[in-house]
Design a protein that fits this description.
The complex is a heterodimer of chains A (163) and B (578). Chain A is of the alpha+beta class. Chain A contains four helices and nine strands. Chain B is globular and about 75 Å long. In chain B, β15, α16 and β16 (418-419) form a beta-alpha-beta unit. Classes of the chains: A alpha+beta (163), B alpha/beta (578). The A-B interface holds A 9-10, 13-14, 17-18, 21, 25, 55, 58-59, 62-63, 65-66, 68-71, 163 and B 119-120, 123-124, 127-129, 131, 148, 182-185, 306-308, 311-312. The structure holds thiamine diphosphate and magnesium ion (MG).
């Protein structure tokens, strides 16, 4: 099962490499990983998408918790939550294609953030599924380059992950 | 406030932490620290002959005393030489602080002379690590390093110190922190009351119980409580290789070690148990054999200070996270207040069954090895040494058949007496570990049980024994082969002995010992075994290398059947299987 694990950790050098190292050391896989400091500069927030059965996920969270740098973590997929990923894509757009691409962008509520006479750079935010669908919708147009941020997530309602 | 250089701060912080012993080896990046050590008196530094020896010696010291072992090495090769010893300590959860010199901060990342990324190299085998960026941080980092190493599930901590940070020309105010606040680290304390009550109820309902105790009981100081619990309930106890001594080895409720080379009665009792109380043990693959076939009818209670150890390989029915001491004492309190007992007639039946197993295939009642041939049997050597030392020695071990014979035939009545590399299985551990123990207990008998293969992996430490006058006994069960490897090759590779024999290249260990200034004793004949051993052990003031030529064809039994075997599937001899 796909899980989104959100981690608050000390914003210290080496902390990220310990998390990543743990995953390779124990043979867990990372689908995506995002990390940045929080409003409290001493803390970083890391969001990781991983795949595994309940047993594996339990081991992952236990071992993450064991890392000295990890302050707190939550498996967002255990409750209702919001997840977002940002996609930017350069897509070839000439002549009639320009309108077609624009229509797809509108349907997916994306934005064109850069243009040349031959291409658009499009930005779309949403769940990973939505981004996949958008790329699929662009299908027949030539995709020149894709960059995705990896998933960030937050729980719905009053629940917060903080120290 | 006092002004100190980084190097002096480091040494002062160690003093303030109560350190009086460091094992190490100097080099360029550590020279400021070494100079600070020279200018003080309270910390003794033991100069080993190889950094691996430093880590194992500190490890032996830590295992025998319960204190944190401290190691100091230089950058680059000094640091990488320490890696094996750090991994050894990590696998067995031994508290250790390793201080490594590092190239100056401005050179880090430039492939400078003797630069290695020590924090990176050691990352998968440490509990935590620090790279010191500023001298001002030294006191707090040292305080944290010791706290982390020695609390919760203990483990090694690396502190990497760039040379400029220890510069004697720069001084900073020094104050050792009294308290620590670490929001990200809270080791487990008491166990969950509800879980403990459930566990006690399950124990009281047991008809075929086994207590399975591991190294966590030794490390966590839980031996007395465990012994009290087992005696109160009249339950059988088995210990892991790491847990030997957690329960008195000569007690009648002790079934011996379990696992790959565990006793017939311990493995069979585990297989048939209805309730297993696992304490400070981690269901290692050398214990469980095939996990899917592990103890099919058992409900499992698992007490451990590390939640990640629980339900890792074998799912626990009643997990309890907490220190062994607090959980066991709460269990005892609950038992005492309820004043209930398990069904005694069921327990008596269970004991009858176990005694029958012991009678049929125990290590002694039906000797698993030849006792009347001309050759010296390794088991007999261990039994003789057990008698001569009155079961009261500190025994360190290397890795191989000799290790298993020692584990099987030397009975440890006290915790911290049996010191071996169970998790990593590091050949070369035994001798330096013995030196670490001897420094801690100069008046005690310390025996290193080794093989002619293992001893050569850290043989250089014979010189350390000379320098610091550390009269340990080295008992080499010389079977002229990498015996354990050979045993596997004979059992699983139709006797193709690929690179497990030395073809007449072994040194004369007696002469070698003498070259280092020690006494060497060679024992080749069965009839001289006891006499010569006695003479060797009478030498209280010298390091003695006892080279005993044992039957080279002997195997260690029982041995669990692999792959796909259960706990009770064992070879009992070369020809006999359960
Ligand atoms: C550093 C290291 N390398 C290799 C091994 C694999 N190994 C396990 S036991 C063994 C043989 C040990 O030979 P010896 O010390 O003579 O002991 P014996 O089994 O003969 O008693 C070897 C090579 C190991 N455990 N450690
Ligand atoms: Mg050998």
């Amino acid at each position: 099962m796909r899980r989104i694990i959100s981690v608050l950790m000390e914003n210290e050098p080496g902390a990220l490499s310990r998390v990543v190292g743990l995953f390779s050391q124990r043979g867990y896989n990372i689908e995506s990983l995002t990390v940045a400091p929080t409003e409290d500069a001493t803390l970083s927030r890391l969001t990781m998408v991983t795949i595994g059965d309940d047993h594996k996920i339990e081991q992952i969270t236990k071992n993450l918790n064991k890392l000295i740098d990890v302050v707190k973590l939550v498996d967002l997929t255990e409750g209702s939550h919001i997840e977002r990923e940002l996609l930017m894509v350069k897509v070839r757009a000439n002549g009639a294609q320009r309108d077609e691409v624009k229509r797809s962008v509108d349907i997916f509520r994306g934005q064109i953030v850069d243009v040349t006479s031959n291409m658009y750079t499009v930005q779309v935010a949403g769940t990973s599924e939505k981004l996949d669908a958008f790329l699929q919708a662009l299908g027949e147009h030539t995709i020149m380059e894709v960059v995705r941020s990896g998933v960030s997530g937050i729980a719905r309602g009053e629940k917060v992950l903080s120290v | 406030m006092e002004l100190l250089s980084g190097g002096d701060m480091l040494v002062r912080a160690l003093q303030d932490e109560g350190v009086d012993l460091i094992f190490g080896y100097p080099g360029g990046s550590a020279l400021h620290i070494y100079d600070a050590i020279f200018r003080q008196k309270s910390i003794k530094h033991i100069l080993v002959r190889h950094e691996q020896g430093a880590t194992h010696a500190a490890d032996g010291y830590a295992r025998s005393t319960g204190k944190v072992g401290v190691v100091l090495v230089t950058s680059g090769p000094g640091a990488t030489n320490a890696i094996t010893g750090i991994a050894t300590a990590y696998m067995d959860s031994i508290p250790m602080v390793v201080i490594s010199g590092q190239v100056t901060s401005d050179k880090i990342g430039e492939d400078a002379f003797q630069e290695t990324d020590m924090v990176g190299c050691s990352r998968p085998i440490v509990k935590h690590s620090f790279l010191v960026k500023n001298a001002e941080n030294i006191p707090e980092i040292i305080k944290k390093a010791f706290y982390i190493a020695n609390t919760g599930r203990p483990g090694p901590v690396v502190v990497d110190v760039p040379k400029d940070v220890t510069n004697p020309a720069e001084r900073y105010p020094y104050q050792y922190p009294e308290k620590l606040r670490m929001r990200s680290y809270t080791p487990a304390g008491k166990g969950h009351g509800g879980q403990i009550r459930k566990a006690v109820a399950l124990l009281l309902s047991a008809r075929r119980p086994v207590i399975y105790a591991g190294g966590g009981v030794v490390q966590g100081g839980g031996s007395e409580l465990l012994t009290e619990l087992a005696r109160r309930l009249n339950f059988p106890v088995t210990n892991t290789l790491m847990g030997l001594g957690a329960y008195p080895g000569s007690d009648k409720r002790f079934l011996g070690m379990l696992g790959m080379h565990g006793t017939f009665e311990a493995n069979t009792a585990m297989h048939h148990a209805d309730v297993i109380l696992a304490v400070g043990a981690r269901f290692d693959d050398r214990v469980t054999n095939t996990p899917s076939k592990f103890c099919p009818g058992a409900k499992i209670i698992h007490i451990d200070v590390d939640p990640a150890s629980i339900s890792k390989t074998i799912v626990a029915d009643i997990p309890i996270v907490g220190t062994v001491q607090s959980v066991l004492s709460e269990m005892l309190d609950t038992l005492k207040s309820g004043d209930e007992q398990p069904d005694q007639s069921a327990i008596v039946d269970w004991w009858r069954q176990i005694d029958d197993w012991r009678e049929r295939h125990g290590l002694y009642t039906a000797p698993r090895y030849q006792t009347d041939g001309a050759l010296i049997m390794p088991q007999d050597v261990i039994r003789a040494v057990y008698d001569i030392t009155e079961g009261d020695a500190y025994v360190t071990s290397d890795v191989g058949q000799h290790q298993m014979f020692a584990a099987q035939y030397y009975h440890f009545d006290k915790p911290r007496r049996w010191i071996n590399s169970g998790g990593l299985g590091t050949m070369g551990f035994g001798l330096p570990a013995a030196l670490g123990v001897k420094i801690a207990y100069p008046d005690k008998e310390v025996v290193c049980v080794t093989g002619e293969g293992s001893i050569q992996m850290c043989i250089q430490e014979l010189s350390t024994a000379t320098q610091y006058h550390l009269p340990v006994k080295i008992l080499c069960l010389n079977n002229q082969a990498l015996g354990m490897v050979k045993q596997w090759q004979e059992m699983q590779y139709e006797g193709r002995l690929s690179n497990s024999v030395y073809e007449e290249s072994l040194p004369d260990f007696v002469k070698l010992a003498e070259a280092y200034g020690h006494l060497g004793v060679k024992i080749e004949h069965r009839d001289e075994l006891h006499g010569k051993l006695q003479e060797a052990f009478a030498e209280k003031n010298r390091t003695v290398f006892i080279d005993v030529y044992v039957d080279p064809s002997e195997h260690v039994y029982p041995m669990q059947v692999m792959p796909n075997g259960s706990m009770r599937d064992m070879w009992l001899s070369k020809t006999e299987r359960t």
